[in-house]
Specification:
By secondary structure, the protein is of the alpha/beta class. 25% of the residues lie in helices and 27% in strands. The protein contains 11 helices and 21 strands. The longest helix has 18 residues, at 193-210.
Length: 460
Amino acid sequence: MSKTKTQFVCSNCGYISPTYLGRCPNCGEWNTFTEETVTKDSGTNAKSTRVSLTGSRVEPQLINEVDAQDAPRYQIQSAELNRVLGGGIVPGSLVLIGGDPGIGKSTLLLQVSGQLATLGKRVLYVTGEESADQVKMRADRLQIAVNDRLYVFPETDMTAVRDAIANLKPDVVIVDSVQTMQEGDVDSAIGSVSQVRGVTTDLMNIAKTNNITVFIVGHVTKGGAIAGPKTLEHMVDTVLYFEGDKHHSYRLLRAVKNRFGSTNELGIFEMADGGLQEVQNPSEIFLEERLKNATGSAIVVAMEGTRPILVELQALITPSVFGNAQRTATGVDRNRISLIMAVLEKRAGLMLQNQDAYVKAAGGVKLNEPAIDLAMAVSIASSYENISTNPRECYVGELGLTGEVRRVDRMEQRIREAAKLGFDRIVVPQHSLEGLDVPDGIEVIGVTTLKEALKLAIPK
């Protein structure tokens, strides 16, 4: 016997309600509830035995008896993607890639498919949004080498996908996208929360049971998060976000979750006529259009995962026309701007309470680490005083509320990156100088307070 009931699920966050609601009490979105029919088995036979991913019974065992081995990785030609994934593609992993429409997700995965096929791996590219002809046209445009290892399967039915995987026995499966797949056992519309959860669960079982690497593409909401329930990101092994403005050529691939490597790694690509090309030295890109003797500009050496990147922070300080001063941010946290301006006013004597502030991280990159505080304070003070900073000087450090400059990590890597790009001087926290191996050609100056840093950066 089975019981059938109706429930309403929020398509934005997955909240379940027994009745229809106009506004979701969990995420606050309006008109996001959809009706779904749920069938549950009743009786003593409804319980299933827990088995392992290989099909055998799970038994308790001592942790020192567990044979832990490092999984071999597929090293593809894309060094940027290898680094973001933690050193390569792990067999049996489930990777979720999200991004705005037209950002280049399908292009990236088709290029990865071609690279895997040239390594001798059998790849199944499942597309639910395009026909086989459209995929072939893109492959020709990207100049992907044609061989007998890359298969294209335009299908949305998960039953047919499972049969194709069982027949081909591929090493890698790419599903574009998970919102277009349909699980026959789930009685709801394609793209609904239940469908997305069911399809992802099915793909996870396929990946773990057969040691097949599965890449799935996920659509994003207007807020930039991957559409569907938040549990979708918990189910997969790795979550990658493909960011950037589709009207510009540069794309940022960021890892926000990775069970096989470090998080917050960053890969940078450039969209060209022949597809996505790797950017070997992103610091030069972020600095190539910097104006000389421009006020409100300061260079920071930020860390994106294990990679140091030099980014220009720009600030524009203007008198406020209305009563309340504005704080506008692009690429940095708006609340951090208010905090740093308060420290500048209290500890450095700058009257900023009646000034509008517009702060931007040039190049479209997003910075959120504490080490950018000092460079942000220097750029704001430079614009306020209308005095340009030294174009061959950069700044690294965290600011405290009492005006002290606090130490940050990976200082040697930051200094070497600045020296490699020809900077003459870098201002760092005094406590970070202990035990540093400073390369030749760059002067490292340690400061303890914000006032000391401003005297060096903005001489009056």
